[in-house]
């Protein structure tokens, strides 16, 4: 076991671009290392919610995000240490990157990139290469990726989509020329794919039996094609971390009072987008956190004083959500604070693609062909259960829906010279996804409002 102090073997799984197989390798590594009896801590660079679901299934503990844009660069190493400490200390942390190794937030060079996070946590990089239609140039690409930022150490390569034994030999010989070890090779025929839809992979919670089978197949694939001992040696080459672990109690300043109001977090297949730190911060602020599944639960948990409805895919479950008329009616009349992001916004409206929703907000929503995606620097326009007017916050958008109107008379946020979202009474709803570790006062405000 890793000691409670600073020793944490860790490795970042990266690639030159999206689509090279990072998720395949990272998820397979997590599952294969766990099958060896190791306690593995899973992490994902960026705001993505879906990959961490597969990571959690593979590792048997929550998948967590490391996003400097959302939480600040100074919190990345502490959040890594926190995730690797609870519920038990981990033997190794595996961090899946985002996009290409050096791709950061638009207009900010490599800020919030995989390379940036690798530097912040002082971790070696395992580079996954899609070798389709590529030979010796794979070595040049690897050398260029390494030389572009000498502070990022590429400690090994996984060859993906290798065409034949001859192709693999050619690639290994080329990479030996530049001194980068090959730690595994996956053939095209052996590759395992997870099901996808309009916003990426289908979340684990929506395909539980199939997801288990996929993760098992990925573990077997990595066991058969990757030198796990070499990966462990690479992870153990990371230096000690000198930063203390992030502490949710310290982040919120401790419980906001003696009473523990019950806060219900939406979950289940339709609402899978939530950061693990949200529940931890609410609990640290003094809440009794419970889960409600709007697809199946006819009522809120007894004693609920506040509700948080995060992101997900309500459009895939619109009719089932509509059929749960009792819960829709209860939310329409609920007098406690409600915080809703993206999917939650749609669920609280009057309808989604013509199917009735809760009717708590006077808006209609529909699917479109346009993907809205990107980081946002916003500030609160209206006082609400999670923010004071004028308070700055960073978040991201990721949806293919639109609402009419786009904001209420009392908007939630303003960014890019436009107003967004709704504050209606004790309801705060918008498309903006936020990570509360970046502004923990949101958790404390919500618990205080619940009282």
TrEMBL record:
Limits of the CobB/CobQ-like glutamine amidotransferase domain: 263-439
Give the enzyme's EC designation: 6.3.5.9
CobQ/CobB/MinD/ParA nucleotide binding domain location: 11-199
Family, similarity comment: Belongs to the CobB/CbiA family.
Further information in the entry reads: The a and c carboxylates of hydrogenobyrinate are activated for nucleophilic attack via formation of a phosphorylated intermediate by ATP. CobB catalyzes first the amidation of the c-carboxylate, and then that of the a-carboxylate.
NCBIfam families for this protein? cobB, PRK01077.1
Q: What does the function comment of this entry state?
A: Catalyzes the ATP-dependent amidation of the two carboxylate groups at positions a and c of hydrogenobyrinate, using either L-glutamine or ammonia as the nitrogen source.
Name the chain's protein.
Hydrogenobyrinate a,c-diamide synthase
| Gene name of the record | cobB
